[in-house]
Fold each of these.
Amino acid sequence: MENQEIRQVDNSINGFISEIRKIIDQARVHAVRSIDHARVMMYWNIGKRIFEEEQQGKDRADYGQYLIKTLADNLSKDYGSGFSKRQLFMCRQFYRTYPIVNALRSQLNWTQYRMLIQIPDNDKRKYYELEAVNEGWTSRQLERQINSMLYERLLMSNDKEAVLAVARKERVPESPLEIIKDPMVLEFLGLERKSAYYESDLEQALISHLADFMLELGKGFTFVARQKRLLIEDDEYFADLVFYNRLLKSFVVIELKTHKLTHQDLGQLQLYVNYYDRYEKLPDENPTIGILLCTDKNDTAVRLTLPEDNKTILASKYQLYLPSKEQLIEQVNQVKALAEKLKENKDD
């Protein structure tokens, strides 16, 4: 064959090989999911039988404890540590949390269900269950979202029904506040505990962990640019990070600050947002959103700096380490108190 014919044949074969690889990869994914779901069903059925057997001996004190211990001793001899007493207690808890077998989701594995059944709040557990399926979270990602208290942080600027409605796909987010979180938790960067960082260091760390950062940003984000050059007459400006949110149908410009927010920072971000609105945004797209990520902020100063009807410039405090439950509760209470105060002032 001539060289040109050989190249055509090679291109055809390479396309064919790619198709076969896709078939194999898809089959492997389906096989893993089938195994994971079979494991989930096994533990659910075990939990069901344990619960039913316990009910027969409910009049006997400590019967359940004795039953599970005896079962664990017997099963562990033949099947190993996957049937320990602790695991069997989880099976029972799994069945009691999800007593209807049709409610189980084939997209979730046993590791994910183990995390979910440890959440006592029904609404909170339902939110993580739905979002794990909707967003295709891995076990590690689900664990991260639970530990970073995603649900509680969303409730700081949204009501519970709105958050759950989005998770149930009953509505699409209409406002940046429904997606953007404050505070943002960036523990995945793994940065050392220092008193200060250069903004370029923080930016590089975010780019190096872009997938994790987009998970923290929330639904619908796609990456557009880093250090986007904006030429305004003879002056050059550079926006730190630019994303696009397909749910909000708008560009999202993010500026990083390694200090407490100032009104000059807000003015700089407003310039970038105005630029995108006037030169980049298409007529059918929504106004550009600006997010100022800072180490600390004065909410009153933010409100006084920005127009009263501002809906596109947001200031979000970032944390490099996971907050404790007590810290987050304190933050939630502060936000609620501020919202109530604003409502009272508006009513007056």
Amino acid sequence: MDGMIFDIQRFSIFDGTGIRTNVFFKGCNLKCLWCHNPESQNKNTELMLSHAKCIGCGECEIFCKNTFTNKCTACGKCVEICPQNARKITGKKVTADEVVEEVIKDKAFYETSGGGVTLSGGEPLLQSDFAAEILRKCKEKNIGTAIETAANVPWKNFQKVLPFLDIILCDIKCIDEVLHKKLTGVPNQLILDNAQKLKSENKNLIFRMPVIPTLNESEIEKVKAFAGNTPLEILAYHNTGKEKYNSLGRKYDIESIVPPSAEYMKEIAKKFSCIYTPSGL
């Protein structure tokens, strides 16, 4: 079984317990204004251009007239001829076995730290069969498992992966449906329904809320109330992904928003009894 991913990052310590390997799935049905991995949204391969590396030699345009037009198929031929390595293709098809082969390289670190693999994205549950296959194979090899999800998928997608999960990281952006649609492009009733169902599962469940100044700060108390006895982790907005929008030929719409300070995040965490992760999003 194969699926589409755009990255595998080893030695992560922020998305679950211990040292982890994060597998980033390509494709998401939310379009969050603050998304720091915009290359994760489109389910297909895409061409990215580093404007800082590009010297404007024009070799790519001579070679292919479809470069950065709506006719571009992300075939990768212009990547091969770029003298500055300014171009790259993001997104590749891999098999579940290939992913597990990469994950298992650090099994010794998982065993000593209580870590494992975390499926992230994008939205891994849009490829639920592929995700379930990876998780099943990891469990067979005694590797800890986790998933990070925005939960905007049918419940049946969760049911495929739940038997193989140790940790669930579920994002709750805000409670107000109108605001949620404005910030992410979709309503949130399905997300909240799934989150409520997850509470009844015998799993290590953590809700996560990104804190975006001026956009969803007013929702923190509501999200905390919804979480109830389930731990709520708050994540500080950062803008380090805005160059990726440039690379994809897209506009970054919230460039004027200033990331919150660590002191401010600590105050929120204390006020609402939340977990604060200094690493941010």
